[in-house]
Amino acid sequence: MTKTRLPSLNAVRTFAVAGRHLNLTSAAAELGVTQGAVSRLVQALEADLGVELFRRSGRSVVLTAEGARYHREVAAALARIEAASRDLRENAAGAGLVINAIPTLAMRWLIPRLGGFQALHPEIPVDVRAGDGAVSFADEPADLVIRFGAPPFAGAACARLMEEEMSVVCSPAFLRRHGDLRAPAALLRHRLLQHSTRPWAWTDYLARHRLELPADSPLPSFEHFFMLSEAAASGLGVALLPTFLIREELASGRLVEPLADRLRPEQAYYLLWRPGSERRRPVRVFKTWLLKQAAQDAETT
């Protein structure tokens, strides 16, 4: 059996970097070696292959026809080795995930379900962070992001996680004091509480009933849904809240729905990830698990 003879991997990598820069000094700077070391490794590779790879002009070089062909092949091969090595490291036991989610959704929906994921995949630690702004994976350290909106999301792949319906809610004491909340028109006589990122919600709800907020209506605003929920439960006014985030309050009676109809926005909750990152096993299995959780939740409501 003939023994396969491979050139030095260090020499091949040095040649690939030098061929990309076409300058031995720049290649040396990237590799962290001297320009002389780069030159010696390339010469050793040429001697091993029996082919001239570069034509030299001072510190600059030009690929020969054979060198250009060889460079294309080895650069692609080294890129595959790098990608395979990166995937192996990232998929190793202990490689974790960072999930960035809307704060109240993380508190009320995601975190209560994480025990199920950890039981299935104890080898994947999950770090949950809060956020609700625009996503740029160039700056965002998260592996997966949950946001409310509509595609496309710039620079991100996405999957629809769940739709939203919003309930008109207030405290039982508020309803007892203001027993006239039997029709949407009655809302205009009371303080309406809003979420700071959903200033359109009340406008949309009232428009469905051919009603309009007076232009001078001051609406108290709250940054997070858990704040808005607490404000409504404390009797500060009437709020529009995502129903799935206030199930406990509705079940316990802290919040009540004086009106039966609910607002269903055109936007929805989406799971976002950096294109290509689903090749990582932790990203892939968490994404599959989370979408299944959302589908099961939709079936039971």
From TrEMBL:
Supply the SUPFAM superfamilies for this chain.
Periplasmic binding protein-like II, Winged helix' DNA-binding domain
Quote the Pfam families the UniProt record gives: HTH_1 (PF00126), LysR_substrate (PF03466)
Q: Which Gene3D superfamilies match?
A: Periplasmic binding protein-like II (3.40.190.10), Winged helix-like DNA-binding domain superfamily/Winged helix DNA-binding domain (1.10.10.10)
List the InterPro entries. LysR-type_TF_proteobact-type, LysR_HTH_N, LysR_subst-bd, WH-like_DNA-bd_sf, WH_DNA-bd_sf
GO MF? DNA-binding transcription factor activity; sequence-specific DNA binding
Every copy of the HTH lysR-type domain together lies at: 7-64
Q: Which UniProt keywords apply?
A: DNA-binding, Transcription, Transcription regulation
Q: Per the UniProt entry, what are the Gene Ontology biological process annotations, in alphabetical order?
A: DNA-templated transcription
Top-rank taxon of the source lineage equals Bacteria
Q: Which family does it belong to?
A: Belongs to the LysR transcriptional regulatory family.
Name of the protein: LysR family transcriptional regulator, glycine cleavage system transcriptional activator
